[in-house]
Amino acid sequence: MKRCDSCRVHKEGRESSTGRDPQGDCDPLIYSPTVTQEEPYDSHKLSCGICGMFPSCMSLLSRRGEERAPRPGQAAVVLNVYDMYWTNWYTAGAGVGVFHSGVQVHGCEWAYGGHPYAFTGVFEITPRDERELGEQFRFRQSVHIGYTDFSADEVRRLVSELGKQFRGDRYHLMNNNCNHFTSAFCMALCSRDIPAWVNRLAYVSSCVPFLQRCLPKEWLTPAALQQSLAVHSRSSSPATPQ
Questions:
Q1: 178 among known catalytic residues
Q2: Residue 174: exposed, middle, or buried by beta-carbon count in 10 A (0-12, 13-18, 19+)?
Q3: In a 3-state reduction of DSSP, which class is residue 209?
């Protein structure tokens, strides 16, 4: 497969620094280190099949475009991506990673999970805190999506509105998962979508229809969402008679 310029430059850089290419055409999901810095991303500048498939190559492509400086009052919109870490050791070889994502804006991170009740499945965590999600999650990288004019209060109202669509009992691995939520949220905040590789799980599940029934409960209902459900259950319970 023909590589784009960014892929070629990245490959030549590795060869010049080591005298050889130890990775060759191996999967960057396996061999590239976890990226922790925020990276600008341009969804309109995809140049080759490799870049569209692998996030490490996508990161290089994103640096082609100049990021516009925010206007006064604007807030950064950042996508935080997490590995369902043990599965990616097995699926990355096929070019498919299994990811969870959340949107960070105004110092809060919002994500979506499933539960059996007819109210929102959107929940809040401390940005990049994988411990709040549970043992199955491992922080991978942050991707800078853009900037929003919404204030913190307006963002919370938007989250409330999105919660009507992204209810816990409407979670669906193919059609309405955590990455569908972050995509819709980013589009509403700054009219920019998330990278395509983040939601490749939806494609995998379309090939394996029973996959959702095989997933650990912690994937569908992260620890932070389970805590939110417990609080909701206590607040909605009738008061105990004195």
A1: yes
A2: middle
A3: coil
Residue type, 240: T
**Is the distance from CB of 39 to CB of 57 less than 8 angstroms?**
no
Asked if 100 is an active-site residue, the reply is: yes
Q: Are 150 and 135 in contact (CB under 8 A)?
A: no
How, if at all, do strands 75-83 and 99-105 pair? antiparallel
- 114-137: pLDDT as tens digits: 999 999 999 999 999 999 999 889
| CA nearest to 30, candidates 49, 55, 48, 50 | 55
3-state secondary structure of 176: strand
**List 51, 57, 100, 144, catalytic entry:** 100
Q: pTM for this one?
A: 0.69
Catalytic residue among 57, 178, 186, 190: 178
Return the residue matching tokens 């589009």. 187
* pLDDT score, position 102: 98
Q: Token pair for residue 115?
A: 């539960």
The tokens for 15 are 């060869």
